[in-house]
Amino acid sequence: MNQPVPADLRAAVQERRSLLEQLSLDLHTTPETRFEEHYAAEQLAGRLAAAGFEVSKGVADLPTAFTATHRGPVDGPTVAVLLEYDALPGIGHACGHNLIAAGGLTAAVAAAAVRPDHPGTLMVIGTPGEEGGGGKILMLERGVFDGVDAAVMFHPGDRSLMARHALAVCHLRLTFHGVAAHAAKMPWDGRSAAAGAQLFLTAVDSLRQFVPPTARVHGIIAHGGSAPNVVPDRAEVDLFIREATSAALDALVPRVLAAADGAALATGTTVETAETAPRYAERNDNLVMGRRIAAYTAGLGLELEPPSPANPAGSSDIGNVSIKLPAIHPYVQIGPRDTPSHSVPMREAARSPRAHTAATTMATAMAALVLDLLADPEFLAEVRAEFHASALCSTAGQESS
Ligand SMILES: [Zn+2]
């Protein structure tokens, strides 16, 4: 199905294409990692204030989080456009969050400019720390999403998708403590924390065959010692444990922790475990909104593929939002299919003319969707009905999904 975006809205986004591109490139050349996105937050909040939005910075006790609201003359729903703007450590904007920020902002600014008298509240929520910080989860817990009726965003990627499953994830840091000793003169006095870490990762490999095919357990040795001639007294493993649902994740985490205890026991070390972010839930994409945005993009010449279990899944903190209120997270292709996310080719794609054309199309469709949600109570009722039905389904069917 194909639905035309109103011509004035389409023109308003086109007029702002250079703003979108400049902002996107500016963020791309100034990558900031989770919760350090001071420059990005400043730029985005500043532009929203200049466009007549009422801005609150540092919301939810997060210095780089913000909200910006545009209230219409009559009461109505609250619809939020979510922005992400954090980069990855070491590699920069290899997840393309510069496009999420620039595209989302352009959608909101264009929608408010064309329909200043929209009912209800058009909100932009600046959500920092998506990459391993769970910024949206903290903001959800701290009340920023209270009263929000629906939340929309898009994500760049290697294909264009109306919706895609995302895995629940637990971010773990395991610190093994041993006893330092000279590695040649008195190794028997030492207990190697690196040996504990090594045996733990081997134990995870042994466990791997006996977990569901939906599980993913992967990590790095973040610290393995300081010098080869010193038995390491500290080693750190950073590990992600992922599963199709939060319930399945909750069942898997204790098995991985037991492997760590076993490795520590075997090597005479001890292990401390800490979750470095709140657990991300699986995503519950709202398909009523998904079909509407796909109809708008189709009208603009961009087909979003319908959901398919064949598409590989990652994780995102919008999962937790999507089980509390209707939300969407469609993908738009910005580079060749199968370009891996978090790679150098994806980082380069995220600054390309193709990416800016894709983000402009998504901004246009998203602006139209947001105005529908604000002004068409029947459509919002349909969105809500699907949300309530799917929320029940996901609770009832967690074991089988
Ligand atoms: Zn991302």
UniProtKB/TrEMBL annotation:
Which GO terms label this protein's molecular function in UniProt? dipeptidase activity; heme binding; para-aminobenzoyl-glutamate hydrolase activity; peroxidase activity
> Which keywords does this chain's UniProt record carry?
Hydrolase
An annotated GO cellular component: cytoplasm
Determine the domain of life of the protein's source: Bacteria
- Residue intervals of the Plant heme peroxidase family profile domain: 172-401
Q: Which SUPFAM superfamilies match?
A: Bacterial exopeptidase dimerisation domain, Zn-dependent exopeptidases
Q: Which InterPro entries match?
A: Amidohydrolase, Bact_exopeptidase_dim_dom, Haem_peroxidase, Peptidase_M20, Peptidase_M20/M20A_hydrolases, Peptidase_M20_dimer, Xaa-Arg_dipeptidase
- Any one Gene Ontology biological process term? folic acid catabolic process
- List the PANTHER family: PEPTIDASE M20, XAA-ARG DIPEPTIDASE
The record's similarity note reads:
Belongs to the peptidase M20A family.
NCBIfam families on file: amidohydrolases (TIGR01891)
Q: What is this protein called?
A: Peptidase M20 domain-containing protein 2
Organism expressing this protein natively: Streptomyces viridochromogenes (strain DSM 40736 / JCM 4977 / BCRC 1201 / Tue 494)
